Amino acid sequence: MKFVIQRDELMNSVQDVMKAVSSRTTIPILTGIKVEATEEGLKLTGSDSDISIESFIPKEEDGIVYVEQIEPGSIVLQAKYFPDIVKKLPEKTVEIESDEHLKVTIRSGGSEFHLNGQDADEYPQLPQLNTEDSFELPTDLLKNLIKQTVFAVSTVETRPILTGVNVKVEEGYLNFIATDSHRLASRKIPLDAENNNLKFSSVVIPGKSLTELNKILEGTQDSIQISVTENQVLFRTKHLYFLSRLLDGNYPETSRLIPEQSKTIVFSATKELLQSIDRASLLAKESKNNVVRLITKQNNQVEINSNSPEVGNVTEEVAAKSIEGDELKISFSAKYMMDALKAVDNDQVKIEFTGAMRPFIIRPIDDDHILQLILPVRTY
Amino acid sequence: MKFVIQRDELMNSVQDVMKAVSSRTTIPILTGIKVEATEEGLKLTGSDSDISIESFIPKEEDGIVYVEQIEPGSIVLQAKYFPDIVKKLPEKTVEIESDEHLKVTIRSGGSEFHLNGQDADEYPQLPQLNTEDSFELPTDLLKNLIKQTVFAVSTVETRPILTGVNVKVEEGYLNFIATDSHRLASRKIPLDAENNNLKFSSVVIPGKSLTELNKILEGTQDSIQISVTENQVLFRTKHLYFLSRLLDGNYPETSRLIPEQSKTIVFSATKELLQSIDRASLLAKESKNNVVRLITKQNNQVEINSNSPEVGNVTEEVAAKSIEGDELKISFSAKYMMDALKAVDNDQVKIEFTGAMRPFIIRPIDDDHILQLILPVRTY
Question: What is the ipTM, given to two decimal places?
Answer without folding.
Answer: 0.89
